[in-house]
Amino acid sequence: MEFSGFKNLTTLVLQLLPVDQNILQPLFFNCIYLQNLTLNQCTFRSDLTITSPTLLHFNINCGHVIGDMKTNIRIIASNLLSMEYSSYFRPRHTLKFNSPMLSKFSYSCRSNSNLVDFSAFKNMTTIVLDRLLGCLQTDVITHLFSKCLLLEHVTFNNCKFTCDLKIRSATLLHLSIVDCYKNLCCYDFSDKLDIDALNLSSFEYRSHTVMRPVISLAAPKLFKVFWDAGFRKRNVSHFAKIARLHLIQNLTMNMSFSQIPKLTKDLVRFQNLKQLKLFIVGAYNPKMDYFWILDIAMASQHLQKLSLTIRNGHTGRSHMVGSERQRREYAKFFHNELKYVELHGCVCSINVIELASHLLRSATLLKQITFSSRRNFYRGAGRWSKDPDNCCWFQHDLIHQHLKHEVNQQCHLIIF
């Protein structure tokens, strides 16, 4: 391949090509301004050395590995800032770095971490590890936090648990543990997750539906939490450890209807919440109202934004409320800080409309209440569920009919 005409090239993507040193050497010799390089589904025919003083971002998305050949990839890039490596196959690539400016690294493949040299990541601040096998504690965490002394953002996604985890860090700001799992033979045993992070401000946890971690969390500065321990009733007990951290201001939770009675007892312990997002899924129960949300709001007198998303399992029976409505009272509810309320998904039931009615009448500073048919769920690590965007039984006119006389001049009722 001829690169002599690409002297001013800054971004290059090579796709589905056989790559060896004979291609890379003229590439970097001629493209002296190259900053972004992607090798997508390429086949590596030999060991590779990436040498470039201008390269800033490097992405490898692996193709098939030929036979059992093991390939060493050495990256010598003095100004490299970020690196992404992903493989849907079991890789045989060993990564070695001489990139002192590297601060962001993403590694996704079914392998042990011994294919990565963590000792070269002294200036690393952000790392994402996806689909790793083996013992995370021995193979990853011990090396990661002892050698990467500037780490601030760490994500473990879909990794395999074979042992307890102990995380110790004075610099860690954000920790995300999402969709990790363990051996099938170990499902009857709880995992231990021990976190001691003095400056941790944000924590995300979403477990495999059958995992029940015993969590010890020492994070005195934690103020933002996402929690999803699956939708089984028995998975809620360990959330009480989170509820003891009273400084939390921003809480997002996924839960099932069966978990509500237990979780409500913990949620009313958060007295400093400013933002609360609840995602609820399950079969519709006409006997269950949503006044428990008012209890939580009463306990959190600093709450400014409340968001509720509901996805019912039997939509045909959960929305048709007709025009019959008997106003129920929740006399003790009042709130002087709540400004924004969002109600998404399957929110045409009489019980949700009653909740909205109480908020409109008793939240004195309420500026906006929004109804929408969107019902996708947050899943952690910046991802959302792929559920249908809209609730098929959403009825704009029905909501407006019941609430139009309860909206005052300072509050806007938005339905879309």
TrEMBL record:
Top-level taxon in the UniProt lineage: Eukaryota
Family matches, as InterPro entries: At1g61320/At1g61330-like, LRR_At1g61320_AtMIF1
Domain At1g61320/AtMIF1 LRR, first and last residues per copy: 116-400
Name of this protein: At1g61320/AtMIF1 LRR domain-containing protein
